[in-house]
Amino acid sequence: MPPDRVLVRLSSLGDVVLVGAITAAFPGDTGVLTLPRYADLIARARGVSAVYVPGDVLPDVPIVDLHNSPASRRLTLGRNVRGVERQDLRRRLHVAFKTRPGDLVVDRYALAAGVAVAPAPWFPAAERGGTLIIAPGAAHATKRWPYWRALAKAWPGPVRALGGPGDEAAIADIGGVCEDGWVRTLEAMNGACALVGGDTGLLHLAAAVGLPVVGIFGPTTSADGFWCHAGEAVELPLPCRPCSRFGGAVCAVGDHACMRGIDVARVIAAIERVTAPRSGAA
Ligand code: SF4
Predict the structure, then answer these.
(1) Ligand 1 center to residue 163 CA distance, Å?
(2) Which DSSP symbol is given to 143?
(3) How many CB atoms lie within 10 A of CB 221?
(4) CA separation for the pair 65, 274 (Å, rounded)
């Protein structure tokens, strides 16, 4: 049986993870078209019954293009497609002139799909335990917080450093492991009490399996992007923020104060708040 609809999101990790907030909201079966490297991962999202990769023939069902890029439009050419509003200009103006931020990614997805965002978890929930997961990796240098090793030493409970493909150097610095593939990474989150990381796909993946998360934001902000999670965003009110939509190689101001100004004690306090038993909880 074909799915009732197909959602399209080719990349990247954080965006693909947020597609789970939409597939979980639909009644019935949903198919997702994505790049092969995310196929195993999105197949685990709630509500997903079929996964397609470029080159596959899509079934004759409504399509919602949550990517709306030249590549995704080529793949759905001639079909009845509803595309997400990208808000590229608004988001660029926000970076350049500190004007109104774009809407959160997940809200734009929900609007395009015509559903309300489903509450997390959007993927099979992680088994909860007592280990703090630290995710120090970030593709862009300005998104890297310099105190991960100090945090690992200072946290009073068990700690595990975790990275995905591409995070090897950051992980080696604090003695953790890089899992081979996103599904292994997702499974490695079992036994955690929370995950702390930068504004990266791993942070959003942890939130998608229901873990409390602490996100450390520097060149990007929690108001303009992927943050929609149970947890805390730690960030400083600097006039240069945000300086980038995705992070960059060097700090334009030169001092990297957006990250260097966030000390370990502040992050520990945030972790303690998100892992504290809630009043009234059993
Ligand atoms: S300190 Fe300002 S300019 Fe430098 S990376 Fe952070 S947000 Fe960008």
Answers:
(1) 24
(2) G
(3) 19
(4) 34
Helices (H) and strands (E) in the chain, counts: 11, 11
**H/E element holding 120?**
none
pLDDT mean over 171-194: 86
Q: Which domain holds residue 180?
A: 128-275
Distance, in Å, from the CA atom of 240 to the CA atom of 43, rounded to the nearest integer, reads 39
Closest atom, ligand 1, to C-alpha of 240? 2
Atom of ligand 1 nearest to the CA of 254: 4
Q: Is the CB of 264 under 6 A from ligand 1?
A: no
d(CA 253, CA 140): 16
Same domain? For 140 and 231 the reply is yes
- 238 and 201 inside one domain: yes
pTM of the shown model: 0.92
Residue 142 DSSP class: G
C-beta separation of 227 from 199 below 8 A: yes
Question: In this predicted model, what pLDDT tens digit does every residue of 87-120 receive, in sequence order?
Answer: 999 999 999 999 999 999 999 999 999 999 999 9
Per the structure, the count of domains in the chain is 2
Instruction: Look at residues 68, 64, 101 and name the one whose alpha carbon lies nearest to residue 86.
Output: 68
Specify whether 133 is located in the same domain as 262. yes
